[in-house]
Amino acid sequence: MKTNTAASNAPFQKARKNRKEKHAFYSLLTFVLIICLIQAIRGAFLNVENFFSLNHKIAELQKIKVKSLEENQDLKYQISEFKSMQGVEDVARNELKMAGKNEVLVLIKNNNQEDSDKIKHPDMKDLKTE
Questions:
Q1: Is residue 119 part of a domain?
Q2: Residues with Cβ within 8 Å of residue 90, at least 6 apart in sequence
Q3: Containing domain of residue 4, as a range?
Q4: Is 60 contained in some domain?
């Protein structure tokens, strides 16, 4: 009778074993899918963060570009000024304190600036303004 019972329980045991194997497989599959889902969410978050970071950098670089273009225009204007004789003459008179032929240079002493007390020129000795 025992052999008969064991023989009759064999299909149930096989079915139970198959159910346990399927359950283990589905548990493992569920675990792997949860890990994949977590990685996908993490990757999406990092991409969004990277997107905003790069947009901020682009905005900063565009501001720098605009500022550089304005400075470039200003420098081109200064170059055109220095190419003309009038521009060179203005620099010589105003910044280098030079005078033209048959002209007298009058310097007014400014009490607030001690640098204007002496004018140095490579061809001349130190001149004191009075």
A1: no
A2: 81
A3: 1-68
A4: yes
Per-residue pLDDT tens digits for 47-59: 999 999 999 999 9
CA distances from 30 to 16, 19, 24, 40, 44 (A): 21, 16, 10, 15, 21
Residue 98 domain flag: no
User: Stretch 57-70: mean pLDDT, rounded?
Assistant: 97
Residues in the chain: 130
Containing 118, the helix (H) or strand (E) segment is: strand 118-119
In a domain, 5, yes or no: yes
pTM: 0.45
Query: Half-sphere exposure of 20 toward its Cβ, with a 13 Å CA cutoff?
Result: 6
Say which amino acid occupies 118: K
